[in-house]
């Protein structure tokens, strides 16, 4: 589906939107629920990735396809490896077969798992023969993806003597590891996170309990961008959010102050309000703790005619696409001067946007959603707009309620 996008006629926005639960929290909770069936989940994500996780956990055949879902790939690898008697081949989309999994597989093998690569060493698909994992201590590199660490931590409560991880190198995407530990605490696991050691205790039994998932902050980021690009006085209310979030992307409420966006925390909602013009100059930020909002921020800067230096982006090359290269190519179509390294993105301020360009999305939901707010500045096209369903299937519907004009081409 190719969409032509233009902004609302009135740039003074007033709207309220309900977003579903965080996909990261949902996929962790679904795994914990499979291990401890007394857990009930409220406000789960309606994303494709959450569906892939749910289906994968319930599968009866010996083939599991998780499509594009990185968390489902990594979390299910750990889950199946620890399920005695389970024999499955775990695979995904073409892109998933290019996203590395060796660090996790090696760590699981050290713990006693039986896993083979079906085609290419280090990459899905993998064949897993589930076993009771006997060891309880392992070291692994921590600078490639935090999902490997979260995957191991999530199965740890079922180990006889808990689990101790030694993390090697600079730890990336730390808030996602803390999110995992936070959810483990909710089911009664004792956890500790020292400088480079994480410990999780065994959990024998979980009494009936409810996990209430906060709505997705990465999805909220697109509305921060919209408010930043709209008139002073604009307000969008988003539910259901809270101040003490488990999601690292909630840092956006601080970052967007520089773009003139204030966040008002109500009991179960946030109100994003454009209160002043953006701070002028080059926007600088290290996003190693919040990699999923890098694309949103780069496009906001483009729309506000600001330059940016975004660093800490070393994980972006192995996500749904090489996001650094994809951003360079697509920002450039609007006329921006962009340089990328393998861990950073640098953009010079641009005064006039080239209109009516067609943005490619590279099977990456965040490419489509990050660029959409720019329709407040110029009209353009988005190719393969349906990619948004990976994390936010209602995105285009919600954009229409704000008055954005979407025309299917
Ligand atoms: O654990 C998680 O839920 C996630 C961790 C992050 O990945 P990396 O740790 O690979 O950066 C993030 O980009 C991804 O969208 C979700
Ligand atoms: C990187 C992402 O997801 P995953 O790694 O889980 O595929 C994302 O949603 O931006």
From TrEMBL:
For binding phosphoenolpyruvate, which residues are annotated in this chain's numbering? Answer: 23, 70, 99, 147, 323, 366, 390
Specify the pathway.
Metabolic intermediate biosynthesis; chorismate biosynthesis; chorismate from D-erythrose 4-phosphate and phosphoenolpyruvate: step 6/7
Catalyses which reaction? 3-phosphoshikimate + phosphoenolpyruvate = 5-O-(1-carboxyvinyl)-3-phosphoshikimate + phosphate
| Residues annotated as domain Enolpyruvate transferase | 62-399
Where does the record place the catalytic residues?
Answer: 292 (proton acceptor)
Gene3D superfamilies in UniProt: Enolpyruvate transferase domain
Query: Superkingdom of this entry's organism?
Result: Bacteria
Recite the UniProt keywords alphabetically. Amino-acid biosynthesis, Aromatic amino acid biosynthesis, Cytoplasm, Transferase
Q: Which Pfam families match?
A: EPSP_synthase (PF00275)
Ligand binding (3-phosphoshikimate): 23-24, 28, 145-147, 173, 292, 319
What InterPro entries is this protein classified in? Enolpyruvate_Tfrase_dom, Enolpyruvate_Tfrase_sf, EPSP_synthase, EPSP_synthase_CS, RNA3'P_cycl/enolpyr_Trfase_a/b
Cellular location of this protein? Cytoplasm
Under which EC number(s) is this enzyme classified? 2.5.1.19
Query: Chief subcellular site?
Result: cytoplasm
Subunit field text: Monomer.
Question: According to its UniProt entry, what is the function of this protein?
Answer: Catalyzes the transfer of the enolpyruvyl moiety of phosphoenolpyruvate (PEP) to the 5-hydroxyl of shikimate-3-phosphate (S3P) to produce enolpyruvyl shikimate-3-phosphate and inorganic phosphate.
Q: Which family does the record assign?
A: Belongs to the EPSP synthase family.
Q: What is this protein called?
A: 3-phosphoshikimate 1-carboxyvinyltransferase
Q: Write down the species.
A: Maribacter arenosus
User: Corresponding gene?
Assistant: aroA
